[in-house]
Amino acid sequence: MLAVIGTVPMPEGIYEGEASFEGSSIKLNGVLLPAGMGTMASAAAALRVLQHFGSERVYCLLAGDRSGQGSSMLLEKAVHYLPCSGSDTIVLHYMFVLIKYGEVIRNTLDKMKSKPYLIADAGGMYLAKAAGIAGVFDLFTPDSGEMAFLADPKALHPMYTSPRFFSLPIPDLAESALKHGNAPDNLLVKGRTDFIFAGGKLNKTVGSPVITAMEVIGGTGDTVTGIVAALQHLGIKDFSYKAALLNRLTGQKTGCTPRTRIGEFIGNLDPALLEKAGVEV
Amino acid sequence: MFFKKKEPEPKALLLYTNIQDVIYSHSVLLKEGLGVSLVPPPAGIAAGCDLAVQFNPAEAETAKSLMHSGHILPGQLHYVACSIDPVENVAMIIEIEPGYLMAKCNNIKVTIDQANGEIVNISGGGCPDIPYVAQTVTGKTLWDCPEPVEIGSTLCTYMVQLAIDTLRQEVGRCWL
Q1: What domains lie within chain A, and their CATH numbers?
Q2: Does B102 contact A at CB distance below 8 Å?
């Protein structure tokens, strides 16, 4: 099963279980939750893709968090969950950067007989870099600003990225991040042009359709992460390229403006677009 | 070209993991006359999502006494051999589409309707409070939204605040 681990804007506590997509919301343990930006948008996009293949469940391990306390609870729970989950694809998403958990995550994964395909975005990715465990991940899905952070060997958080990295081209940023062990070999860098790196090399770029407003809509990067996780989980070839393309096609169908909300965007992710993106249904 | 080697300049750091605490303590220390700056905590000391107030070690006793008396919040006191450059995050403003301005501060983007200052979207970031901050301020104007650093606690929220402050300056200037 595909698992999504991250924090959500809900009261502090752990929320876990098999989630499904209903209407425009995620249903978890009988409760409907809005598919807003962040972890929920990723889970919702993954569910939308999986629905079309008759596999309608995603395991969600979520924590309500506004102070960092929820992230501690989440990571404690996650390291217990990992070895016995049976999940073959796991996404680490929004969370507080708690460097002390880096070694715990590495040790847990080292002890596992069969390691899942690990994807990190947002706080999960910041934690992996700051704790020096980027190498245990299989795929990062940064945006261009986060790629600059990964490239800066000294920055422990995107806020501390040296300004000089923001003017460098994405391939140079990826090279720096890889050289310093701050990114895995596979990257899907989201931006006006999406850059896909496989095995440490630039593999493909996706630049069309151009949907300018997508950059400002909170959650359109999270949906790429959810889509790529679902396609990888389904064993789709060229999953990063197809995820980037599918996200853009969804933006085109939505007719995105700077006012578009992510819930509307996710609602437009449909089977016809999967075929158009080259994903065989 | 020759660069002058930076002389070691010992400093004291007060570390906080909550942005509200660090901003409050920074303002109190500033009012008390300490030469303070906000700096990124160095690796080995940093817990992850934290920010530090830097000042001269000679002023550490004043800071400790303010902590003991409850005038500033308790933080972790550390000493470093060299001063750390202050954080200098600047938001860049771009017209993303006619009538919409986006302020980008590193990986955080705040977009407004230029006509009325309404915040229409916030994207980027990865700290846990960002979805909450985004859903709370979106739909409100730059002037009637709550201050992000008063409802959030992380570095990503601090960048949202910087982006909103930059938009306030830009739009205020245009409306004058």
Answers
A1: 2-276 (3.40.1190.20)
A2: yes
